[in-house]
Amino acid sequence: MTHLHELTATEIVQAIHGGRTTAVAVAEACLLHIESRDADVQAWEYLDPGLVLEQARALDRAGGKGALQGVPVGLKDIIDTADMPTALGTPIHAGRRPTIDAACTALTRRAGGIIMGKTVTTEFANRFPGKSRNPHDVTRTPGGSSSGSGAAVGASMVPLAVGTQTTASTIRPASFCGCVGYVPSRGDIRTFGVMEAAASFDTVGLIARSVEDINLFRNVLIGTPPAALPEVAINEARIGFARTGFWNECDEDTKAFLEGFAKTLAADGAAVSDVAMPVALDEVQEAHRWVSSFEFVRNRTFEIDHHWERISSALRGGRIQDGMDCSFELYGESRETLRRCAALLDDVFKDYDVLLTPAVAGEAPVGLTSTGNASFSTLWTALNIPAVTLPLHRGPNGMPVGLQFVSRRYADRMLLGIARAVSRKHG
Amino acid sequence: MTHLHELTATEIVQAIHGGRTTAVAVAEACLLHIESRDADVQAWEYLDPGLVLEQARALDRAGGKGALQGVPVGLKDIIDTADMPTALGTPIHAGRRPTIDAACTALTRRAGGIIMGKTVTTEFANRFPGKSRNPHDVTRTPGGSSSGSGAAVGASMVPLAVGTQTTASTIRPASFCGCVGYVPSRGDIRTFGVMEAAASFDTVGLIARSVEDINLFRNVLIGTPPAALPEVAINEARIGFARTGFWNECDEDTKAFLEGFAKTLAADGAAVSDVAMPVALDEVQEAHRWVSSFEFVRNRTFEIDHHWERISSALRGGRIQDGMDCSFELYGESRETLRRCAALLDDVFKDYDVLLTPAVAGEAPVGLTSTGNASFSTLWTALNIPAVTLPLHRGPNGMPVGLQFVSRRYADRMLLGIARAVSRKHG
């Protein structure tokens, strides 16, 4: 028998709509499971069981038929909540109390979702780690910056969590924690009430344990009625295998898995071929670095000027130094590079529906001082296209390793349709 | 003798750097002038003279050489301030206290600017008017949504104010109030801490009494060192006269002024010709309507669900209804329309450095129940290009009427260079 906390969001909603369980029962099961695991995993920055049960009781009393009726949801702690603190991963803002729900918070509540609590993030959603650990091996990082969101879903504490991605901050923790992670086309989901890191790239990302759940949650956060994904047959898909310039940073095991999976998809009948990525796309990594740093450092002016000593030296010497070093001219040139590269990538997608590409270098690294290699998402995030990671592999130590599919901008439903078809067959 | 409150920001900085006046003297002069005028004009949502003088005294003690040293600045009340409330133009959020300065607030302070207070805005920076009146005739609107920012600068209460523009919210109040108004290329100035209305268009806008001041403030808010504008000769400028599809909404007086001004520029030696705007650009207005409404309504989910009865019926029946009526498909098609139209407009700029175009239909209308016709900025805002309005005309009732120059995206310095040359010759 599956425990309530192990159900997907889709299963919870069906069970509640069908009268077979209640929001309170689900919330209690998740709270109990969190109690048993969170001393080790430390996914939560803020969690008030009383507030959770209050929401659940109100939902049961109202008896609504929301698209997320009674589904517990974790929110990265850079997403504002009117009834919980939002501390942005820094002691500077410990206890900060917004008075307005972020758009994604409020849309989750409107659909009947329960805001379970706030999940741990790195400092200002950048690199300096929070306290969370990987639920599959607590000596390892869960990835970042949506560290607690990945860990909480990976540990079956909640079926859904919201993260964000400015570089690799959703795809990486989802991959490391054995989850499905999804980054929409930038702009599809509103960022009101989500801390701006670098607006040229900031995207609300979703973490779940199934592609169906991603689709369910996506519709809620876009603010549209529920809609099933298109049925996509693997054998009609045109799939490009994009090793990218970072291929040699992948573990041998990850390389072998991806090479093998490309062959598997071909055996499924998909048209799979190696992609010759335009060499100019190699410039994207550097352009992303300058644009994101330029924007980030100006967005943090208040903390730099008033709380410099409470910013980590890693952030001061990293992103902040980069942002201070970047002139407006370099920022402008870098934006122009990205504009040109986006057009080149559009051309690549004339021949492919999706690209198969690494999500991470391999298993989550041992140690909690780094959130791992972020290179495998930068290209796609920088060019604002959608991405999904599927937990279809285990590495040599039994840790989850995700693969990644990406598609052209705004082709999210097709991308998720293919991801679902692949999950059904190989998940 | 010019009174201190009538100085431009550039003049104030020079006087303070040169030891000829102090931040306290300037602040006191502005406060005194505000006291004499604001009962009529009502530009300020929040103004605490004690807090203003405290900032001024600290600046004088420190004796810095900031780019805005001692310059009083008004901030539209959707821009967060850590030491003042930010109420977003709605009683729902009266007394709301952010704990972090917006990027533009903090950058202003870093440069030695004094945050004078918060200026009145319309409800959620949309259409429903706040209490402000036009300083040139208090029976007339100052325009909106940066109503108080336009009124405060137009009344010489402060030399600089920050507004925002999602449709026409900086150019229109600047024009109605006799100010220079500037909307940068979208993305150049960070929006962290500025209420998101519709991120596809939201732009921080500046209001001042000279183009030099706009340039000074622009560099501060971009976060770059001071830099003089390029010297641009009018007789080397290629100027397109773009009446646009809204020409017939202009007053006869405004039409005559613009027709005459195009001839004046030609007489100055500029290459001036009528622009044949691509007919497809007529679709922009409708696309902007859907995109901005789709985004706005989702960003206001919290207030719609928890404070519906405190939202004006104008907003409920207008922007909110539009946003609820707009499907994700229509939103997507409208974004695609804008993408196509931006490319068409790029082509127009192959032949022109700037376009001369109406800023407003004419003088600010009598009455305070509407902020006036917003049509003349929508095209440019929707396509994310920079715009500047110059107060070079008075209408039949002696009220200011601005003209507008726009240029290609990211050509802001050239645009401001031309605007300065035109101001010097005809201002």
From TrEMBL, chains A, B:
GO terms for molecular function: amidase activity. Residues 26-416 form the Amidase domain. InterPro entries: Amidase (IPR000120), Amidase_dom (IPR023631), AS_sf (IPR036928). Signal peptide: none annotated. Keywords: Hydrolase. The keyword Magnesium does not apply. Residues 126-151 are annotated as: Disordered. This is Amidase.
